[in-house]
Specification:
single chain; Rossmann fold; 6-stranded parallel sheet; 14 helices; 11% strand; elongated; binds SN-glycerol-3-phosphate; binds magnesium ion; HAD-superfamily subfamily IIA hydrolase; hydrolase
């Protein structure tokens, strides 16, 4: 999580709130797992599946009873002490088309009850809608219990559920739907403001698709936007700003977001008299109860159907920071960003895979077979690979990272990957999974057990 230096670390509150709040489908012990995860985070596991050293040290000598009872899943599959975290765009999907081998991989892991999660910086749809779509396309059952989108962790921000939030990014109608599905009661989107207060942005954006005419989807505002001379208390106050995924109308969004960041207490259409006051921290910018701004990720590029990666939310964040830099004469924008590579998203993802593992392996299976490795398969060195490499040091499980050639990273264009994937570079997800299963089969072979040789 990157936060600017001068203001109290919003991350702290969020991290605490992350820890305090749990996913609807998650059970209460998730919180205990997290704390346990945190406490054990300094235990580096023995086996690092990096291409160089494959030294394996068997920790516990399994007893016969524990070996038999705890080494088979309820339906008789070999229990695994590892799992997978799959990125979506550029690994499993090219825009809305499955990448060859992706479906076979997930179906094999599903049938063998090897826990895996989908961990994407994508979003813009509710989790259930995205899962249904992906399950159909990848022909494998997916659930809320093994699926994490970039904005999913925002659902744990309970302290904002009773407040009024501004949400932008992607399909405006869906952004409101997602926010409501997370429990946020009062949600405003930029289109609402532009429809009810046209002069807030003098230009009108004509979306290619008529379905997105703001007039058609705008909701009434909880309170009117302040007009000069109107008592501020009775006007619209925004308590937090969320960017869920890739905004469509950058100009309108940047205008409204900067209006809120210079406002007094979040009252749109007001201006704080602390702005630019050099006697204050951050020269008075964002020092007057302005709404916090949360970005769900910072991917500059992402892999779509076009032959070159396209600009992502990170580019929007860059544009906004550029405008803010000009407005404040160089003051950094105080913001909170999650998503890969940020540790919060990996802590969240690890909670999800622990929870899912219990569902797949059963209580006993999960309890007696500690999760040792989560193989992270990604196409983006700045998010997938960096995130897993950094998190490996913070988690009790290892997160070996695998980079595929089917997405953002392109050897000819980008040269040597930096950061370097710890478990290697693979043509596609099929080869990556094959390598991991061979590694795990060898590990299991040391305990005289059969692994996964039929992949
Ligand atoms: O906007 C989504 C994109 O940035 C990346 O998605 O699945 O590759 O993490 P994914
Ligand atoms: Mg990707």
């Amino acid at each position: 999580m990157s936060t600017s230096p001068s203001v109290s670390l919003p991350g702290e509150t969020m991290r605490r709130s992350f820890m305090r709040h749990r996913r609807p489908s998650a059970t209460s012990e998730l919180t205990s797992i997290v704390n346990k995860t945190r406490r054990k985070s300094n235990i580096a596991s023995q086996n690092s599946p990096t291409k160089t050293k494959t030294k394996a040290i068997v920790t516990e000598i399994p007893t016969h009873s524990t070996m038999d009872s705890a080494s088979k899943t309820p339906s008789g599959n070999q229990i695994s002490n590892f799992g997978f975290a799959f990125d979506i765009d550029g690994v499993l999907m090219q825009k809305s088309t499955p990448i060859p081998g992706a479906s076979e991989c997930l179906r094999y892991l599903h049938d063998k009850e090897i826990p895996f999660i989908l961990l994407t910086n994508g979003g813009g749809k509710t989790e259930s809608a995205r899962i249904q779509d992906l399950s159909e396309k990848l022909k494998v059952p997916l659930t809320l219990d093994n699926f994490v989108q970039a904005h999913t962790p925002f659902r744990t921000l309970e302290h904002l559920k009773g407040k009024t939030i501004l949400v932008t990014g992607g399909d405006p109608i869906k952004c409101r739907e997602i926010s409501k599905s997370y429990g946020f009661k009062s949600v405003v989107i930029p289109g609402d403001l532009h429809v009810h207060h046209r002069s807030i942005w003098p230009f009108h954006y004509y979306p290619l698709d008529d379905a997105y005419r703001p007039e058609d989807y705008a909701d009434d505002l909880p309170k009117p936007v302040r007009e000069p001379g109107v008592d501020t208390e009775d006007t619209l106050k925004i308590d937090a700003i969320f960017v869920f995924n890739d905004p469509r109308d950058w100009a309108l969004d940047i205008q409204i977001i900067t209006d809120l960041l210079i406002s007094r207490q979040g009252y749109l259409g007001t201006r704080s008299n602390k702005n630019g006051d050099k006697s204050l921290p951050n020269a008075g910018w964002q020092q007057d109860g302005q709404p916090q701004i949360y970005f769900s990720h910072q991917d500059l590029h992402w892999s779509t159907g076009y032959h070159m990666p396209r600009l992502g939310q990170g580019a929007f964040q860059g544009a906004l920071c550029g405008v803010w830099d000009l407005m404040t004469k160089g003051k950094p924008l105080v913001k909170t960003t999650i998503g890969k590579p940020h540790a919060e998203t990996y802590f969240y993802a690890e909670r999800v895979i622990h929870h899912y593992r219990k569902l797949v392996l059963g209580e006993e299976g999960d309890r007696s077979n500690k999760l040792k490795r989560v193989w992270m398969v990604g196409d983006n060195t700045n998010s997938d690979i960096k995130g897993a490499n950094d998190f490996s040091g913070k988690s009790s499980a290892q997160w070996p990272s695998m980079l595929v050639r089917t997405g953002v990273w392109h050897p000819e264009r980008d040269g040597e990957p930096n950061p370097k994937p710890t478990a290697g570079i693979f043509d596609d997800v099929m080869h990556a999974v094959k390598y991991a299963l061979e590694f795990e089969t060898k590990e299991l072979g040391k305990e005289g057990k059969d692994g996964w040789t039929d992949f």
